[in-house]
Design goal:
Shape: globular
CATH architecture: Beta Barrel
Low-confidence stretches: 1-33
Organism: Mesorhizobium plurifarium
Strand order of the largest sheet: 5-4-1-15-9-10-11-14
CATH superfamily: L,D-transpeptidase catalytic domain-like
Number of domains: 1
Distance between the termini: 112 Å
CATH class: Mainly Beta
Mean pLDDT: 90
Keywords: Signal
Protein name: YkuD domain-containing protein
Strand content: 25-35%
Helix content: 25-40%
Largest sheet: 8 strands, mixed
């Protein structure tokens, strides 16, 4: 059998065409792959305390890079939160599960953050969470649950809450709230008034005459209370930071929106629930959940708004709230 000779020019043309096709394929494949995590940041990846789990970082980076490429974000920093990790480690030690990442300056910080406490509608539905670990997640109105997924930070609003005692002096307590905008399952974040703020509140409010105060009402009264730091507690579904951490975080996003990715989403919760039902151990190749909290909560659950909102609405109808009462006058 004789082989047919091929003109040199035609052979070269075919070779160039093949190389071009291979180059295009490699380029297309590379475009689909997530960008490589830099070495300095990779050193913070892991499931230990103060580290960020691989899947949480990958999704947070992908969201940030997408929004930067689309022009909606130019902030050099972005945020992530792993709500499967414990929030309270005991002995007044808080779990580090909220992450501040500024890649240009090679900054990585892990701080504490509260999770949604949920609610226990007695005799109807219990979707409450303990202080340490969150079992229940959801995006229903009035559920007070954390909803995982993609968020953008939006406007900030600072409001006066009242006065509290600092030694022999009175100090004004003003708290800043950072509104979040979501997408997909978190699209109702603004409707739910979901955002970030310091984990501090005034309790035991009473009204006292103080017409000299710039915050006084038209009758010259202002509220007074006791300042309570609940950084080790739960929230109404918002992201709450310790007051000290909030002083660092809020200026980063004021007038400069950025992304926040909260893990887990409903698909992650469903995957973990399926693995648990099948008796499968979670592995690095499968669905992720913090091992300590998973052992404590059993099987996590996502409560979708289409299922939970009618239940909450009916409960409110059956158990109407008492009429609001005026803040009492201070006795001293």
């Amino acid at each position: 059998m004789r082989l047919r000779s091929v003109p040199l020019g035609a052979a070269v043309f075919c070779l160039v065409a093949i190389l071009a096709a291979l180059t295009a394929s490699v380029s297309s494949f590379a475009a689909l792959r997530p960008s490589t995590i830099p070495d300095w940041l990779q050193r913070h990846v892991g499931d230990g305390e103060g580290q960020i789990s691989q899947i949480v970082l990958e999704r947070a980076r992908a969201l940030y890079q997408k929004k930067v490429s689309g022009g909606s974000v130019s902030n050099p920093c972005y945020f992530a939160m792993d709500a499967t990790r414990p929030g309270d480690l005991g002995n007044s030690v808080l779990g580090q599960r909220y992450y501040i990442i500024c890649e240009a300056k090679q900054i990585f910080r892990a701080v504490s953050s509260g999770h949604g406490g949920g609610r226990n509608l007695k005799g109807v539905a219990d979707f409450s969470n303990g202080r340490r670990c969150a079992k229940n997640f959801g995006n229903a109105m009035d559920s007070e649950l954390t909803a995982g997924g993609a968020y953008l930070t939006a406007e900030t609003k600072t409001s006066f809450k009242g006065y509290y005692r600092v030694g022999a002096e009175n100090a004004a307590f003003v708290r800043t709230f950072v509104q979040f905008d979501g997408e997909g399952e978190t699209a109702n974040a603004r409707q739910r008034v979901i955002g970030g703020h310091p984990a501090a509140i005034l309790k035991g409010l009473c009204m006292r005459k103080n017409p000299q105060s710039s915050y006084a009402d038209h009758d010259g009264f202002v509220p007074y209370g006791k300042l309570v730091n609940y950084a080790g507690g739960r929230s109404n579904g918002c992201t709450s930071w310790s007051p000290a951490d909030a002083e660092q975080i809020i200026p980063l996003v004021k007038n400069s929106p950025t992304t926040l990715y909260i893990y887990p989403e409903s698909r992650d919760i469903a995957a973990v629930a399926r693995a648990k039902a099948a008796g499968q151990a979670l592995s690095s190749a499968g669905p992720y959940w913090n091992a300590s909290c998973l052992k404590e909560i059993g099987t996590p659950k996502f409560w979708p708004k289409k299922m939970l909102e009618p239940i909450i609405a009916q409960y409110k109808k059956d158990h109407p709230a008492p009429p609001p009462q005026p803040v009492p006058m201070c006795k001293d």
